[in-house]
Amino acid sequence: MKFVICTACGKSVPAESVNDQFPDAGLVLPYEEFGYYGGFTDIEFGFFDSKNYPKTWLMCHDCVVKLFTVFPLLGKTLTRGTHPCDNEKPCCEWAWRPTENFGKYTKDSDGALIPAPGPHYQIVQDGQWVDAFD
Ligand SMILES: [Zn+2]
Ligand SMILES: [Zn+2]
Asked: How far is the CA of 8 from the centre of ligand 1 (A)?
């Protein structure tokens, strides 16, 4: 299993879902694009620690949840069900999990393939899994 270090908390976290370089269910923040003239940091004048200068911040799942807990309006910019979770108790309010209908199809009266009836996945509401209909 491949691991990467979370830039925010320093923990080693699994990184298997995308190219073995990003934290599973995490975020990648392109730190260079945060710096601008007149901003908190100015990339042109190099206000970055040259030894600890990452091109990106890699944030593990738990740090992303902390970020959106501290700044709930940022979290509200996300739709529900952004990443999968197999746990009986959802890992966070943005998780989703498949139901037994997930990926199943049936044929309508004309013989065309249509999604099987019923919910195909669940999202989180008030800390509990609920069926999603869309
Ligand atoms: Zn972290
Ligand atoms: Zn989660």
From this structure: 5
